[in-house]
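Dear colleague,

As promised, here are the two records you asked about, laid out in our usual form so they can be pasted straight into your sheet.

NAME FIELD: protein one
SEQUENCE, THEN STRUCTURE:
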Amino acid sequence: MSTMTSPKADAEFPADAGLRNMLLLLQLRWIAVGGQLVTIMVAWQILDIDLPLAQLLTMPLLLALINIVSLPYLRRRTSVSNLELTGALLLDVFALSWQLFHSGGLTNPFAWLFLLQVVVGAMLLEARSSWGVVAAILVALGVLTLGPEPLELPPRYADDPLALYLQGSLVCFLLSAVLLVVLVTRISRNLREADAALAAIRQRALEEDHIVRMGLLASGAAHELGTPMSSMSVILGDLARHPKVSADEEIAVDVAEMQDELQRCKLIVGGILMSAGEIRGENPSVTTVHAFLADVIADWRDRTSGEIVLIDDFGEDVAIVSDPALRQVIGNVIDNALEVSPEGTTIHLQRAGALLVLDVLDRGPGFAPEMMEAFGRPYSSTKQKTGGGLGLFLVVNVVRKLGGKVEVANRREGGAQVRLTVPLAALAIEMENTR
C-alpha cells in the first residue's frame, strides 16, 4: 500500500517562541563549549602555552552539565519566559568573562565574542533585556581591565605577541561565523514555521467559518422542511387508507414505499437538528464500538446491492457515545466508496492503542494525484456536479474536531483507501457525562 496522505496537515509548530529560542541557545552553547575545549587543547598541547587548566576547564564542563540537565527539563515545558532566556544568556556572558579573566583578559582575542552575545541578545530577547545584556557585558569588560591573570607565552611567541593575537583572532572569527550561521539559519527556519502555522490557522478558521455557515443553512433547511414533510405524511396516510388505493395492490405498494422514504427523510432531518443542537451533551445515546459500526453498516446494506464486508480486528469492545456526526461521516465515506465501486466495499476496523482506526477500501480507479493533493478541501471533487466535494470536506473537519485525522491512499492491488483515526477518548462516556 502506498504511503497514506493526510489532507491539509497542519504545519508542525514545535513550541512557543521562548522555548524554541532556549533550545537554540543550548545548541549555540554546545558549539561554544566544543570550541573552548578545542582552543584550550591546541594552546596547551601545540602552542605550549602555560594555561591554568583547572580554572579554564571548569567552566565548559559546567556549561555542558547545565545543558545536559536542561534538556529533559525543557522537554516537559510548554513555554519559556523572556526572564529565563535572559538568565541563560547572562550565564554565557559570565562564562566567557571567567575564561577571559584566567587567560589574559582583554588581550585575549576571544574577547570579541562579547559582540556575538550582544547580537544573540538583540535577536532573541525583548529590547529591555537586550540592553540589560549589554550592561552586563560592559561590567564584565570593566572587571577584565582590573587585574586578569596574564598568559605566560613561550619564548617563540614572547618576542612577537601580535602574531599569536592575529592567529587567535582568526580562530575567533571562524567560531563567530559558525555561531552566527547557526543562529540566523535557525531563526529563519523558526520564522518560516511560524508563517506556515499562521497560514494553517487562518485556513482552518476559514474552513470552520464555512462549516458554521453550512450548519446554519442545513439547520434552517431542516426546520423549513419539517412542515411540508408533515403535510406529505398526512396525505400519504390518507392515500394508504383510500379504498381505491387499497384495492390496487401495485399502487398500495408504491404508496407504502413513499411512506418509508418519507420516514427516512424525516429521520435525516431529525439527525441534522439533533447535531445542530448538540443533543449528545443533553441526552447521550450509549452504545459500543461494535454495535455502532454494525448499525451503520446495516443501514447501508439496506440501501445498496453491493457487498459490504466488515473485517473486525478491534478486539475487546468499548462503550462509547453514539455520535450522529461520526455516523454521518462514516456513511459519507461508504457512500463515496460504493459510488466508484458499486459491486461492494470492505471496511476494516482496528484499534491502535487509544485510537479507533477505520479503513474503508473500495475497488474503484483510486484517487488521481491532484485529488489526493486537494482531498478534504471544499468543492474539491471528481464529480462534475454543483456542490461536489462538500461531503469529504465535512468528513475531514468533523474527524479533526474529534481530535483525529483522515488519510487517503491508493492501494497497490487497485482501488482507494480512506482511513479515519479517532481517539476513543473523544467518544468516551466519561467525557460526555461530565458535560
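NAME FIELD: protein two
SEQUENCE, THEN STRUCTURE:
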Amino acid sequence: MGTAATINHSFDLSFGGESSDQVFIGRQPILDAQQKIIGYELLFRSNSTDNAARIEDDFSAGAQVLINTLSNMGTEWLMGDKLAFLNVTEAMLTSEFMELLPAKRIVLEIKGEIAPSPALIERLQALKELGFQFALHSAQINSDNEPLIKLASYVKVDLLQAPLDRLGDIAAKLKQFQLKIIAEKVETLAAFKRCKECKFDFFQGYYFAHPEILTAKVINPAQALVLDVLNKVRNNADIAEIEKGFKRDVALSFKLLRYINSVGFGLSCEIQSIRHALSILGYQQLYRWLTLLIVTSNEGATPPALMKTAITRGRLTELLGQDMVDRSERDNLFIVGIFSLLDAMLEMPMDQVLEKLTLPENIADALLNRDGIYGPFLSLSEACESADMARIDELATALTLEPAKVNEAHLQALAWVEELGV
C-alpha cells in the first residue's frame, strides 16, 4: 500500500437502513506526482456494499441521482476545494440539469460510446463556456473524435488495458494533444513509478485508496425548498424573497393557491397571485401551513402512518398546552409536536435535522432534550401515543392537567387529523 493510504477514511453517514430512497456514492481520489489530492472521481453505488460503479444509461435514474446526491450531501464536504470527475451519459450532457452543478469544479467524463455529433459538440462548447471541463479515455483519441479532443482537458489511461512497457509510447502520443494524462487503476508501486517515469500528470487507483462509500438520505427537492422558505418566514424575510421561493417550485405554488382558494378558507374573492396569497395569509399562518407541508411534501418517501402520527402529535401538543402558554406561543407547541418526528422521517439524528432549520432555542430544547417550556407537553403527547399510563399520570400531575382534560385533548387531536384527510 502506498504512502497515501491514510486518505481512505471511512465515513459512517448512514442515517438508517438501506432503502430505495437512499443514494450511495463512492469517491476515489485523484492525485498528482507528489500524491497531493487534486480531485475525486464520484462513483455511483446501488447500495453500501456494491463494489462496482453503477452508471445508469437511463436519463431519469442517472441525472436525478446525480443532482439529488450532490445537493443533499453538499458539494463542500464531497469535494472541498477539489475537482469532481463525473461519468455522464449523452442524455445527461444535453439535460438542463447540468446547469445546476458547480461548473468550475466539475470535470465531465465522456463515455466512449458517445458519438461527436454536431449538436453534441455545440452543447459541449456551451458547457465549456460555463466553466465545465471534459475528460476522455485513451481509446477515444483518434481522428474520428477530433472535435471532442479539442474540447477536452484530460485523458484517462486504464492501466489494466495498457501494458506497463507501452506506457511511454502512449504518453508521448497523448502529450501531442496538450491533454493532462490521468493513469487510472494504478494498483501497484511499480505501476505508479512507471507512470511517473512516463510523465503522467495524475494518478488514481487502489494503490492509493479504495473508494470511500458515502451515504445520505435523499431529501425530496420540494421538501428542501419548503425548509428554505420556512427559514425565511421564521426570520421575517421580505415578502419578495419568500415569493421567490414559491416561484422556484410549481407544485409548492399550486398547493398554496389551492389551500387559500379552498372553500373552507372563507375568502370572498379568488386569489390569483402568489404575493397576494402571502399577504392574505400573513407570516404566522404561513409558518403554520409550511410546517404541515414539511411532512406531506415528500409523498411516497414518508410512511403514511408516520406522517399521520406527526400531525396528530403536533395538534395534541398544542391542545395540551394552549391554556398554559401565551397565545403567540401556541404555534410553537404545534411546531414542536410535528417536528419531533423529523428525525425518523429523514433518518438522521435530531441535531443534524436542526442544522437544516432556524428555530428558537426553546423549540430546539424541546426537540433535542424534551426540556424548556414546551418539552413537558411534547413528552405528554408521546406518552399518550404509547398509552404509557404511569407516564401520563406523572406528566399530567406535574403540569396540573386533569385526566379528563388530557383525554379530551387527545380525542380532539385525533378527530382534527381525520378531518384533514391525511
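A couple of things worth noting about protein two: The domain at 3-217 is CATH 3.20.20.450 (TIM Barrel). The first helix runs from residue 59 to 73.

Best,
R.
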